[in-house]
Design brief:
The protein is built from 18 helices and 22 strands. The chain is of the alpha/beta class and 540 residues long.
Length: 540
């Protein structure tokens, strides 16, 4: 096979033994030689191949988005997207325009809205009825933990003033107990049960579009958890297998199982890590609580100025049972936990499962992937060192930190000192695996890296950074986008660094993150993305 040589630019390996090289050679899809231009040219002398003159551009290992709802991201272009709506009126205008474009009888779908900038006023079914009265409408909040629906959708779902709150969910009600049109957590499933499913052709189109977007940022691997709609788990895995069978899966994928999948997976002996270098089975995704913005993150104490402490979406005993059952069968867990109470419950459950495995000894299969917590947004200080102690990966999304500043300060107060605690977790020895949670936030990892390094939004707010003691260096943040996710997927021997023998997944960048001013980091992106030694994206 022909070689590929990249030269004349800084190649940041993320390997302590050789942090920077000036040239790299690829053969058979893996790093063949690395070092000075002379050394690499000597290594490939006499070999047939291609060369790429970097012209000073920087190279880094291919990035991983360790938490992305990839199909949902791709389908967003077909829906009413409200992420840029700064007011309720602006959101309603977008919804009205989308409703006019739909054929009669088609559900209006979408989301991305955030009521915090709208003066914290929750939207209602009456608001939605005013612009979309003739078709059912369902719009997911940006965090995926509450749903805004109109009267048509409520009627089709049979939700009335007499409908009880489901376990792990809540129907928001007005003073007369009538549903307002906002559904929290498990209550969302009451409407989702009657929404027509999206067809395979539409899903595959959306998936391909989202994978291309990922490559445009230099992302070469993704971790895909099912969303709050558990059906998205098996659908995503089926669609990824379809692309893999067609040799059309362009980004390496780790797909997680949803809670309803556990019994079947155990029955056939399925374990985390099964698969090949393109598509592998991850852990079991569970949900311990809700979200900050929906005030459903489970807290040890009441929210500031509130008389509630969030929602536990799974009973403690059931959480412990599921974690123990999964780990006993060689399936790791990836548990959504935002609040300090939820994170403590998850750590307690994992600790008990590990005790069971120690007592069981050789009767338990090996765990190929570590357990992980998704989001880890706020911890009690006593629980912070426990992730490292238990070997639990902190799967976090830096851009949540800067997006959530106002909500976190208003609802968590002084507890924010232990929110999005990247530096403290890293210092404790925990593995950080960064992602985006797209489409909740932008999939662009360079915006996330900027948030991790500055604790600021683009534009410099707040001055000096929000709780700046939790900032990371550029090297630490890149490690969390490259090596940390590889550890989480059990593949740190194959990717995450540029070292001879490892997979040749690389991003050639438009800027140098190690030499750029912090404010310039969000503007960096991929000029070229290379997967297994092949150029799969090139910016025109």
């Amino acid at each position: 096979m022909a070689t590929l040589v990249l030269y004349n630019g800084p190649i940041y390996t993320l390997d302590q033994a050789q942090p920077v090289a000036r040239a790299v050679a690829v053969r058979d899809g893996r790093i063949f030689a690395l070092g000075s231009e002379g050394r690499v040219q000597a290594a490939v002398a006499g070999m047939r191949g291609e060369t790429i003159n970097l012209r000073g551009r920087a190279v880094v290992p291919g990035l991983t988005d360790a938490h992305v709802h990839i199909t949902w991201q791709g389908l967003g272009a077909r829906e009413a997207r409200l992420g840029e709506a700064a007011s309720l009126e602006a959101a309603l205008a977008i919804i009205a325009e989308r409703a006019r474009a739909l054929s009669p009888g088609i559900w209006l779908r979408g989301g991305g809205w955030d009521h915090i900038p709208w003066g914290r006023r929750w939207p209602t079914r009456a608001d939605l009825d005013a612009v979309c009265p003739d078709r059912p409408a369902t719009l997911t909040r940006k965090d995926g933990h509450s749903l805004w629906v109109n009267s048509k959708a409520l009627a089709l779902a049979g939700i009335t003033a007499e409908t009880p709150d489901p376990v792990g969910g809540q129907i928001q009600r007005d003073q007369e107990r009538a549903p307002t049109g906002i559904l929290f957590e498990a209550a969302m499933d009451l409407v989702r049960a009657v929404v027509p499913p999206i067809g395979e052709v539409e899903r595959l189109d959306g998936l391909r579009a989202a994978l291309h977007e990922a490559l445009s940022y230099g992302i070469t691997s993704i971790h895909i958890p099912p969303g709050t709609n558990h059906a998205s788990g098996p659908e995503a895995l089926r669609d990824l297998q379809t692309l893999r069978a067609r040799d059309a899966l362009s980004v390496r994928s780790l797909a997680f199982l949803a809670q309803p999948d556990l019994e079947g997976a155990l029955a056939i002996g399925l374990r985390s890590g099964l698969g090949d270098r393109w598509l592998r089975i991850g852990g079991l995704k569970l949900f311990a609580d809700g979200s900050l913005g929906s005030e459903s993150a489970e807290m040890l104490n009441h929210y500031e100025g509130r008389r509630h402490s969030g929602i536990s979406v799974i009973e403690p005993g059931e959480l412990e049972r599921l974690v123990r059952q999964a780990n006993a069968g060689g399936i790791s867990v990836a548990v959504h936990a935002i609040g300090d109470a939820a994170n403590r419950r998850v750590l307690d459950a994992i600790e008990k499962a590990q005790a069971d495995r120690r007592q069981g000894g050789a009767t338990y299969p090996a765990m190929a992937l570590p357990n992980r917590i998704e989001h880890v947004q706020v911890l009690h200080p006593k629980d912070l060192p426990r992730l490292a102690q238990l070997g639990v990966v902190a799967s976090m999304q830096p851009i949540h930190c800067t997006s959530d500043i106002e909500a976190a300060e208003a609802l968590w107060g002084s507890r924010c000192a232990y929110a999005y605690a990247w530096y403290s977790l890293k210092q404790s020895g925990a593995t950080l695996a960064f992602g985006s949670d797209a489409p909740v936030e932008s999939m662009n990892p360079w915006r996330g890296l900027h948030a991790a390094v500055t604790r600021q939004r683009p534009g410099g707010y707040p001055e000096g950074g929000w709780y700046p003691e939790q900032r990371l260096s550029v090297d630490e943040a890149l490690q969390a986008y490259c090596l940390g996710p590889a550890i989480a997927s059990g593949e740190d021997g194959a990717k995450g660094r540029l070292v001879p023998g490892m997979l040749a997944d690389m991003a050639v960048l438009t800027g140098d993150p190690f030499r750029s001013a912090p404010a310039e980091l969000p503007a960096i992106t991929a000029a070229m993305t290379i997967v297994e030694g092949k150029v799969v994206f090139e910016r025109s």
